Amino acid sequence: MTTRVGVIGWPLDHSISPAMHNAAFRALGLNWHYDKMAIPPDILRQGLAEPQRHGYIGLNVTIPHKEAVLNFATPDDVARAVGAANTIDLRTYQATNTDVAGLIEDLRAHRVAVEGARILVLGAGGAARAAVYALARSGGSVTVVNRTLERAQVMLANLALSAGIRDVDAITLDEAAERPVDLIVNCTSAGMWPHSDDSPWIEGVPFPRRVTLYDMIYRPAVTQLMKQAQATGGRAIGGLGMLVQQGAASFRLWTGIDPPLEVMFQAARDALREDQR
Prior knowledge:
Elements: E1 3-9, H1 17-28, E2 32-38, H2 44-53, E3 56-61, E4 74-75, H3 77-82, E5 87-89, E6 94-96, H4 99-109, E7 118-122, H5 126-137, E8 141-145, H6 149-163, E9 169-171, H7 173-176, E10 183-186, E11 212-215, H8 224-231, E12 235-237, H9 240-255, H10 261-275
Parallel strand pairs: 1-2, 1-3, 4-6, 7-8, 7-10, 8-9, 10-11, 11-12
Antiparallel strand pairs: 3-5, 5-6
């Protein structure tokens, strides 16, 4: 009998998670299958109950359900601290957030130092909350930049309450350009396909020189923001590795087995190439 897992979100047309997980299952000879299920926000409760009724044992959760899903599942310490979940074990109905581990693991894979680094996090949404939590807990000196400063301040106030993270401030992009920085982490969707010409770094604001940029976007492979970093002598890393690493963490949770990371990377690259045809 096939063991089934999958991803829920709205919409899901371009998710490459099925290709990534199913390639790993095949490589390990596991009789498992990963599906994608487009679930509108107004039927999220049913969208969680129906897969379980049909024997699914785990779900990934993506936009726009990462926060709302905590109303219907029990968050672990990480999901509770971040205020969002992207993985549910339907055997226990426990929710966690593997984006936290995914980011840190991919930075480690690229030999990017976090402890003691001066870090700018761009954005104030769910991805930014996970990034601030992960980076601050790993010893980084974090500052948040968001076009709406009040939203960033609310995010940080919530993180202070839920996770005890208090040594993080929120500033404007103009202020950020005046500060020394080692690492910039983009958690916004600016520059994501099909709006590939966009960038969260406002035109006219000087880009820091020789900085490492980590852009969570993986489609396109090279974003406008990454080009800006490279143009000023910096290093630019795209978000495909984080996608694979967070997926690998979900895989381990469900199966109890370490996945073949290179197989997952290759399947993700192949799926992206197929999308671009």
